[in-house]
Amino acid sequence: MAITVFIADDHAVVRDGLRLVLEAENDITVIGDAANGRQAVSQVLQLRPQVVIMDITMPELNGIEATRQIHQSSPSAQVIILSMHAGSEHIFQALQAGASGYVLKESAGKEVVKAVRAVHAGRRYLSQRISETVIDDYLHQRQVKPVENDLARLSSRERQILQLVAEGKPSIEIADILCLSPKTVETYRSRLMQKLGLTDLPSLVKFAIKHGLTSVE
């Protein structure tokens, strides 16, 4: 039986390209795709794919948060993060969120096929540029001596609101997206800025970009 795959990327050309590569294989079928993280979480819950390919930089809900939600609501789905970032912090966040694989965009293509088969078989897959030993050592150091960064001090809801604010969405629109009241959104926004020690919107946007919650695009 074919491995069912779902693709989440905000660029249509990337989604179409990955679909062509994957469906050229006899043992893989793409059953859906999404252009933002929130839509991806919803569609994965409905379609129940075995593997999800998730871009790390997604509008409305970034790939890390989307992966965390998918891992909680659809634990049977194995998530492969697709990213331009090779930094250990991004990789650590992805693995902590529940990702089973991490593939660099620069080496995507046929490597995505290998990654899909690997995670479907229950193995972790990391792009060739990333040393398995280095990552294992890094995770071990984190377990021995936990390192808490500013982002880790925010709740999941606060991180979601931080991303939406950084994307320029007003409180009314954020409230509609998250099914909250505008007043509640303002309370969350005030609280997260206080936690981060930030006093203005430009600083908040810089923080979100630095931690990969949104991009400069």
Task: Please give a quick description of this structure.
It contains 10 helices and 6 strands. It has 217 residues and is an alpha/beta fold.
Description:
- The protein is an alpha/beta fold and 217 residues long.
- It has helices at 12-23, 37-47, 63-73, 88-97, 110-120, 132-144, 156-166, 171-178, 182-196, 201-210, and strands spanning 3-8, 28-34, 51-55, 78-83, 101-104, 125-126.
- Strands 2-1-3-4-5-6 form a six-stranded parallel beta sheet, sandwiched between helices.
Describe the SSE topology.
Elements: E1 3-8, H1 12-23, E2 28-34, H2 37-47, E3 51-55, H3 63-73, E4 78-83, H4 88-97, E5 101-104, H5 110-120, E6 125-126, H6 132-144, H7 156-166, H8 171-178, H9 182-196, H10 201-210
Parallel strand pairs: 1-2, 1-3, 3-4, 4-5, 5-6
Helix pairs in contact: 2-3, 3-4, 7-9, 7-10, 8-9
Features:
alpha/beta; 52% helix; 6 strands; six-stranded parallel β-sheet; 217 residues; single chain
Q: In whole angstroms, how far apart are the ends? A: 39 Å
Order of helices and strands: EHEHEHEHEHEHHHHH
Number of strands: 6
Q: If helices are DSSP runs of H or I spanning 4 or more residues, what is the number of helices? A: 10
Classify the oligomer: single chain
Shape: globular
Please state the average pLDDT score. 86
Largest sheet: 6 strands, parallel
